[in-house]
Amino acid sequence: xxxxxxxxxxxxxxxxxxxxxxxxxxxxxxxxxxxxxxxxxxxxxxxxxxxxxxxxxxxxxxxxxxxxxxxxxxxxxxxxxxxxxxxxxxxxxxxxxxxxxxxxxxxxxxxxxxxxxxxxxxxxxxxxxxxxxxxxxxxxxxxxxxxxxxxxxxxxxxxxxxxxxxxxxxxxxxxxxxxxxxxxxxxxxxxxxxxxxxxxxxxxxxxxxxxxxxxxxxxxxxxxxxxxxxxxxxxxxxxxxxxxxxxxxxxxxxxxxxxxxxxxxxxxxxxxxxxxxxxxxxxxxxxxxxxxxxxxxxxxxxxxxxxxxxxxxxxxxxxxxxxxxxxxxxxxxxxxxxxxxxxxxxxxxxxxxxxxxxxxxxxxxxxxxxxxxxxxxxxxxxxxxxxxxxxxxxxxxxxxxxxxxxxxxxxxxxxxxxxxxxxxxxxxxxxxxxxxxxxxxxxxxxxxxxxxxxxxxxxxxxxxxxxxxxxxxxxxxxxxxxxxxxxxxxxxxxxxxxxxxxxxxxxxxx
Amino acid sequence: xxxxxxxxxxxxxxxxxxxxxxxxxxxxxxxxxxxxxxxxxxxxxxxxxxxxxxxxxxxxxxxxxxxxxxxxxxxxxxxxxxxxxxxxxxxxxxxxxxxxxxxxxxxxxxxxxxxxxxxxxxxxxxxxxxxxxxxxxxxxxxxxxxxxxxxxxxxxxxxxxxxxxxxxxxxxxxxxxxxxxxxxxxxxxxxxxxxxxxxxxxxxxxxxxxxxxxxxxxxxxxxxxxxxxxxxxxxxxxxxxxxxxxxxxxxxxxxxxxxxxxxxxxxxxxxxxxxxxxxxxxxxxxxxxxxxxxxxxxxxxxxxxxxxxxxxxxxxxxxxxxxxxxxxxxxxxxxxxxxxxxxxxxxxxxxxxxxxxxxxxxxxxxxxxxxxxxxxxxxxxxxxxxxxxxxxxxxxxxxxxxxxxxxxxxxxxxxxxxxxxxxxxxxxxxxxxxxxxxxxxxxxxxxxxxxxxxxxxxxxxxxxxxxxxxxxxxxxxxxxxxxxxxxxxxxxxxxxxxxxxxxx
Amino acid sequence: xxxxxxxxxxxxxxxxxxxxxxxxxxxxxxxxxxxxxxxxxxxxxxxxxxxxxxxxxxxxxxxxxxxxxxxxxxxxxxxxxxxxxxxxxxxxxxxxxxxx
Lengths: 510, 504, 100
Ligand SMILES: [Mg+2]
Ligand SMILES: [Zn+2]
Hints:
heterotrimer, A: alpha/beta, 17 helices, 11 strands, about 40% helix, B: alpha+beta, Arc Repressor Mutant, subunit A, three-stranded antiparallel sheet, 16 helices, binds magnesium ion, binds zinc ion
């Protein structure tokens, strides 16, 4: 059954609909794959013990002639930032070990309603703070392309799971690049929708004004299919948009014909010079632009003078909001409690939070507390909010001239585990091209653009569109993807090294 | 703790000028909470719910939960702002007030900070003698209530010495409007009375709007009283204390009086007032120190990123303005004129809190004088004796019906009092009580004449005396007849019949 | 403006954030925060008074929920993750400070 796991979600869905394969078979194949390789990859924090029951139910309903959604019966990996009633939700933190939510995140509820089969919860940097998944309290996830390297972060688990064929699609969340940067380093696709396009209800908040849930997959069409399932207005999230969204899958299918590229204006940002990027990343990016140009697109230089303030603004807004969002983890209602003999509740809270939070989380909470405290607000948080306005204006001006903006998805290919862990500032610079997208609330997608010549590791290209133009990204992404896969003679992931089967199909119980 | 020295109140007022300020929290009686669809315990229907049964994810700060604003709470807040004479902000915002406390599920309170929904108003407050006082309002803002802590072990229910505390999040997220006054000058001797009158005025307003149960004993209305003193002739305001959560009007009055006397004693000795919150103790009638203001009070306010600005359309504001009930002070002036009561009689009704009852009784058809008489005398007497609210005993409609029976001659005043007792005892409407108890006045002349004949037979000299001009002699016969009829006769009719007989 | 991050400030921030930092953590954080703050303080260079702040990337207003009851948890759900509970309530150790 090993071929099942290599099917895209769209292909698997077609096979399921045609009765060529059952959801139980598909689910079992992925569970076997997890058992075989996840000991090395460590993409999952928890594997569902009733995925097969869910799959069986879907098969039964299909057999009974019930009208099912396009992705019914397809297995799904869920980033642990999303709360689930049937599996623990820890957000990668010790402080939430074993936490069982009494309600499902909206995106999870919608996925279940659409007949997707939750396989398990994926690893992540603690509370989504990080770009390498090394800040997970449960140990790092490893990049399937090279197990000594990081899978990106914070959603390294979801990206690694789809890259390692442990799941065809996954849910992620993106606050400053946590879907797109892992996609970049694992040769997969990741989409950060327009802010408000997908409900945040049930996504354990990092920075409320930046967080956005989105799809993770191996193809653009698969992300679009999943986006169709999870997107749309949710009354439980006040920041959720009421827009009537078009079918993103239809947009991806239309894009794959390549017609969209004729006359498409693609902006490149003058203020992001090649010198800031690893040579192979730049080369791959330039090659993709050339390919687009060769197929009728026009490459236009645009200016975004305030992008250089993006990282600084981000590292004020994010810690500030996070310091408040993470205050709820106080040992009273849920989560870790560390008793302090003879201590008051204040002592117990402070001790529990000291023990329960990792270093990066504490660093950012303290930074955010500082940025909001009396006397500093205007200089820090207030100024950062103004930088947001300036970055939005940069985007507005650019989108007056171009249809989409293209950037490399991240400055480097996957770095080695441990390489940047002690240098928070270096780590923060990983998100230089993805952060402005979150600050402005616009959509961004990362798709594989090739391998860097110097290290043979995957590189991604990011496309950015104006707010609410998510469908445009699926069109353009699918168009370039089709050209690239053609030029490679097959998906990029075909070139990833085979993973050692660490254990037999029965092993790896957790 | 040493007992605080107090200065005589009049002396304190001679030496110092009191400056007041109030923060009143009003719990709205919406169906659901401010930011969640959980049922609202401040709605009468949900009062006394078992612990943690009225909780949605956001009320207890569950991971992933989000707040969404209750539309009705916003409308109520705008109405209250308008009733306080405030301007309604074209755009207002929610902010997070960050501090850790176990009753606060998220460890921040969603409130409004620099952009409240209503600002700059005034409330007309009436004192017991009928004079009015303008209280300047700084702002009214929307926020959420916290959960409830119960301290266990150690001294009963007190935070000090408790071994542990229990947390119930039912109240967490109850919609609140916090009304903040500007500093209030010029209250002078009447500062304590004004404090109570202000809280009563707020209570009257929210009851008139129907937006709160407004029961202070349940915490629907809570008052923090700020008091400072400054020496006569000094411009600079003195240091203030904030006495928290005083939960009756009488207590507000006492707490303000106490603080004036306490602070005056300290200042007169050359001491200084500590800026702090203070607790009111109902039993001893004193306040005690709470939490000092310190730099730990860094609430790190920032705009609530999970919520959007509230920008009420002008048309909504105007329609809510049109729907406002008459302001209580205006209403009182109108009713006094309509009813033609003397100052003392009208103020008596107001002070007894029976204005609504008298008004409704008049509306049901009774004359103002009779309505006042019933409520202020007989009904109040029974209420006092039973220790209950007069309004809970009998409906205004029943009182009007009762008076109608008196006016029709069916009941004498004395009979009517018996009927009232029957109505209060739950025996039915006044007419039903009359029928069931057979209390109607005997208006059958034949029966009366027969009784008069019996009485005259017993006192044969009476007719002669009347004919001699000693009309008062009729009294003996009338008395005998009334006794024979067990009070159920109209004495005036009996008198008429006796005089007729004498004239024959 | 750049503020000197001192160990005392970090300790104070730890109190505000309810995280009990030991001396070693305070020392490490003081150095790291100084470096970070030096790098992010540049936001004030372009944040001139004429630039409005953006707190929501997609501007919306008047997003309300109808006042209709729903979505409540059962007591069991409320308490299902409680570190300690009794009498259907969460139990915490003695509280000394007061509410705000
Ligand atoms: Mg207050
Ligand atoms: Zn308040």
